Predict the structure.
Amino acid sequence: MQAIYNKLFKNYGKQGWWPLSKGGLNTKHHNGNPSSDKDKFEIIAGAILTQNTSWTNVEKAVFNLNKANMLSADKLRKAPLKKISALIKPAGYYNQKAERLKIIADYFLKNKEVFLKDAKALREELLNVIGIGPETADSIVLYAFEKPSFVIDAYTRRIFSRLGICKENDKYEEIQQKFEKRLPSDVDLFKEYHALIVEHAKRHCRKKPVCEKCILRKKCTY
Ligand code: SF4
């Protein structure tokens, strides 16, 4: 696992996820670590908005929320559902996601002590919140609260099944364990690894893979 990371890092360089707006209108040029509650909540909102859609669509929704000065837990908790739905429309499933944003905004404001728990305990708590599945929970734990919990997404399943390390339909936690057992429990490494997986999936390991010049070709069973 570490050798694959090293290859990806050497080839693509530091990704610096999570992409944050940091006071700007969009997330394109303002990457960084969360340094405030506002940043943390932006990551939480992004993790919900990105369910079943691409990051490009999330960026449009984040842009709209920022422009309307609505990207905070307090504002989203109080705002009417219809208003939030209209702003996040580009991210798809907007009525459902608007409801989920309101639920997590309320949870974020009322349960500060939960976010002090360790990675495993925080993950378990988040999985009890409506609309939060394993991938969203791990994204929040890792990127918003900077605790080690490896994120598994469709890109991870695709690449690592092609590399013969898992099967594409293996259980989420089974694949996660493969990473967490074989890597040091290092937040920065986990953050960077997931971002590099996304980059590799976009550039080479697409649905229809572009295997020529792929740096993982020698290790690949596809
Ligand atoms: S060789 Fe092809 S299938 Fe294998 S990891 Fe690279 S792009 Fe994906």
Remarks:
- Residues 159, 162-163, 204-205, 209, 211, 214, 216-217, 220, 222 surround iron/sulfur cluster (CB under 6 Å).
- Residues 2-14+151-219 form a domain with the Endonuclease Iii, domain 2 fold (CATH 1.10.1670.10).
- The chain has a mean pLDDT of 94.
